[in-house]
Write a structure and sequence with these properties.
Belongs to the UppP family. The chain is mostly helical. Helix content is 80%, strand content 0%.
């Protein structure tokens, strides 16, 4: 891979991993437009590591609080439970909800990934899913009541968001996009839907990275350590900036800028396929 390819693909991965606009559709474009080869497993591992580090560092306080609160739920004690604050109890619930919501994607990925890679990783599928789920996001942004507090999400709501995340394994859907859409439809505010989606991405990215790492271990192709290092750093920087500014944009303008972008992207991909 050339330095230009590394720079471009790592930035795309970092930016689109957390924006509701589909990373797979964007990573497809360079290969279709410029004839670039697939970036390979090693590079995929590197950019996943960079993205994972970004979300973990950005939400380090929330993650630390949830881990402590989650551990407290494993050793229940009436006196200790009574001493917990409201926020600590909520953090413990959030940790369990995120773990519970991760199960559908793990199972769907385990049993359906080969079929998806063989039959659904096409420009036409990505164009259609980019358009369809873009419309759903726009509908949720406009019509959803957004009056349910995060503590009211419950296991049922978390599981529904987890099911949505499993569907995102279909290329072009956008993991962050569909989980935020489901969060909005369940009544969460835009900020809470986005935050829950970002926190839910941690085990999802970790699972994807672990899967790719396992494949890399048994891959006989040489590893480009320069590409891996540069890709990881660039993905980290772009992902961290993306999370920060996305939360600001959502609070001020909602999801509509990303809905419009998705519709334009989907229409462009559809035109490219059918032209």
């Amino acid at each position: 891979m050339s330095t230009l390819e590394i720079f471009f693909l790592a930035l795309i991965q970092g930016l689109t991993e957390f924006l509701p606009i589909s990373s797979s559709a964007h990573l497809l474009l360079p290969s279709q437009l410029f004839g670039w080869q697939e970036q390979g497993i090693a590079f995929d591992v590197a950019v996943h590591v960079g993205s994972l580090m970004a979300v973990c560092i950005y939400f380090r306080k929330e993650i630390g609080d949830m881990l402590i609160a989650w551990y407290a739920t494993l050793t229940p004690n009436k006196e200790d439970d009574a001493a917990l604050t409201y926020d600590q109890k909520l953090n413990g619930k959030l940790a369990w909800w995120i773990l519970f919501a991760t199960i559908p994607a793990g199972l769907f990925g385990l049993f359906g990934k080969d079929f998806i890679e063989a039959h659904l990783r096409t420009a036409l599928v990505m164009a259609i899913t980019t358009l369809i789920f873009g419309v759903f996001l726009g509908y949720a942004d406009i019509k959803a009541k957004q009056n349910v507090s995060l503590e009211k999400l419950g296991f049922k709501g978390a599981f529904l968001i987890g099911l949505a995340q499993a569907i995102a394994l279909i290329p072009g859907t956008s993991r962050s996009g569909i989980t935020m859409t489901m969060g909005l439809m369940l009544g969460l505010t835009k900020e809470n839907a986005a935050r829950f989606s970002f926190l839910l991405s941690i085990p999802a990215i970790a699972m994807a990275g672990s899967y790719l790492t396992a494949k890399l271990i048994f891959d006989v192709e040489p590893v480009d350590w320069y590409a891996m290092a540069m890709g990881s750093v660039l993905a980290f920087i772009s992902a961290y900036a993306c999370i920060h500014y996305f939360l600001i944009i959502v609070a001020r303008m909602g999801m509509m800028p990303f809905v419009i972008y998705r519709l334009l992207l989907g229409a462009g991909l559809l035109w490219f396929v059918l032209a």
